[in-house]
Amino acid sequence: NRTPVTVIGLGAMGRSLAGAFLDSGHPTTVWNRSAGRSEELAGRGATVAATAAEAIAASPIVVICVLDYDVVHEILDPLSGSVAGRTLVNLTNGTPRQARETAGWAADHGADYLDGGIMAVPMMIGRPEALVLYSGSAGAFDVHRSTLGTLGTARYLHADAGQASLYDLALLAAMYGMFGGFYHAAAMLGSEKVPSAEFAPLVVPWLNAMVGTLPVIAEAMDSGAGADDDSNLRMQLVSFANILTASREQGVSTELLEPMRALLDRAVTAHRDGGDVPNLVELLRADPTSA
Ligand code: NDP
After folding, report:
1. Which residue from 43, 98, 139, 163 could staple onto 135, CB 3.0 to 4.6 Å apart?
2. What's the pLDDT score for residue 288?
3. Residue 275: per-residue pLDDT
4. What's residue 226's pLDDT?
5. How confident is the model over 111-149, as pLDDT tens digits?
């Protein structure tokens, strides 16, 4: 497969994407707003376009990966006349609503549209462990499946262009919860001068064990049955409050954990024993403060 590919945006991620296309033999054209980002890629055989218009004209498949959707539109809106008949693959992080709006813009101008969420850091691109989620045009995904597969594992989700963003942001939310917990734990131990490197070998197997319970909890959430894990939320609230008290006594900020305590409080108020974990998700979905 020697389909020519264009990559717009040569930040850390765009450079990795372009590099993976070059490594697998795709004629690759690149463009970036600022100069000085393309030299290394040019040395590996990339064609450096002088303008974004020239970059779009070079390939049937145009990958754009920039800071945000405002930038996507800043670059593409003036070039709406040149996208017809091409496949636009937008790998920029954004919201489902932004993805759907951009899909509408592409359809209005005769382009096939795929929105993608990159579940990887730049150094992983080009390897199977780099998962890229896609939604939007199923036809375009089928035609370009092997080209997109050069970036990592390409998984198509749904014809609704917003789905890849929804999954991407949900996966990032889960990741930030894990990181937030780790940062707090490191601060607690650091308050007694325990080096984080000493703590890491304990926290990794612990978190792995807890991650292993997620599929069971997920089944309980979907079926509406109790989690049956012998860990009711009233009991959990007591130990959670102990984390907050101990943290304050150690001079550690509780800002990352307070929202979790507020949610546990709501659950215990709503159910006598707090119910179990699926109740927390129900409460989040019924957030009276959200739009
Ligand atoms: P960088 O900050 O390294 O690069 C940002 C890119 O956006 C550059 O090409 C920059 O161009 C361009 N840009 C910013 N503002 C403008 C503008 N007004 N007009 C034109 N171009 C502009 O970010 P990354 O490459 O790391 O990230 C790009 C996307 O990839 C983001 O949506 C990010 O969420 C996503 N992503 C990144 C990951 C990572 O670990 N890096 C992981 C997964 C997804 P210029 O050089 O001219 O400033």
Report:
1. 163
2. 63
3. 72
4. 66
5. 999 999 999 999 999 999 999 999 999 999 999 999 999
Pairing of strands 87-90, 112-119: parallel
CA distance 94 to 165: 6
- Do 63 and 112 belong to one domain? yes
Rounded to the nearest whole angstrom, what is the distance from the C-alpha of residue 118 to the centroid of ligand 1? 13
CA of 11 to the centre of ligand 1 (A): 5
32 ligand 1 Cβ < 6 A = yes
Residue 246 belongs to a domain? yes
From the alpha carbon of 10, which atom of ligand 1 is closest? Answer: 9
Residue 33 near ligand 1, beta carbon < 6 Å: yes
Identify whether residues 19 and 151 lie together within a single domain: yes
Atom of ligand 1 nearest to the CA of 34: 47
Looking at residue 44, the DSSP 8-state letter turns out to be T
CB-ligand 1 contact for 16 (6 Å cutoff): no
Nearest Cα to Cα of residue 120 among 154, 89, 96: 154
Could you identify the residue written with the tokens 């997620």?
214
Q: Is the model's pTM score more than 0.90?
A: yes
- In this structure, are 13 and 151 located in the same domain? yes
Ligand 1 lined by 13 (C-beta under 6 Å): yes
Task: Work out the end-to-end distance of the chain between its first and last CA atoms, rounded to an integer number of angstroms.
Answer: 46
pLDDT of residue 117: 98
